[in-house]
Amino acid sequence: MDELQSLKNSLSSKRQQLANKKAEKQRYLGIAADVRAVYNRMAEDKKAIKGYRDSVKTFAKEKFTTFKGKLYSDNYKARTDALISSYNTVISNLDTNMDRLNNVVAQYENKAYQCNGLIGYLESSINSLVHTIENWVN
């Protein structure tokens, strides 16, 4: 009878450990989802800013017959070039921050996958590879 009670206690303990691990995994996945939402918002903003930059580039390439002398080349050309350069800087900064956010997402997803035991380490390795490729093509 003592052995039966010991086995029941052991089973109860293992169930509690499993429940704790599942809760830990869900916390990690929740954090990853929150960070992913910020990443997605930044991706939308980056797309919009690229559109603005491309509009300025199109404007800069247009010919204006109303400009007399060097007004266009002296004033507007320099300003559009500076604006395009500023947009490129913002896009570059967004890329850097998006890569960092993507790495944080990968870290939390990997922590969640590692809660799955041995197979989780394989999932984690594949996930890291996927996020590395995503950062390269971002």
Helices and strands in order, then pairings?
Elements lengths: L1 H60 L9 H44 L3 H20 L1
Helix pairs in contact: 1-2, 2-3
The chain-level mean pLDDT equals 90
Summarize the helix and strand pattern as letters.
Answer: HHH
Rough shape? rod-shaped
User: What is the CA-atom radius of gyration, in angstroms?
Assistant: 27 Å
Describe what you observe in this structure:
By secondary structure, the chain is mainly α. It has three helices and no strands.
Keywords:
rod-shaped, single chain, 138 residues, mainly alpha
Task: Please give a quick description of this structure.
The chain is mainly α and 138 residues long. Helix content is 90%, strand content 0%. The model has no long low-confidence stretch (mean pLDDT 90).
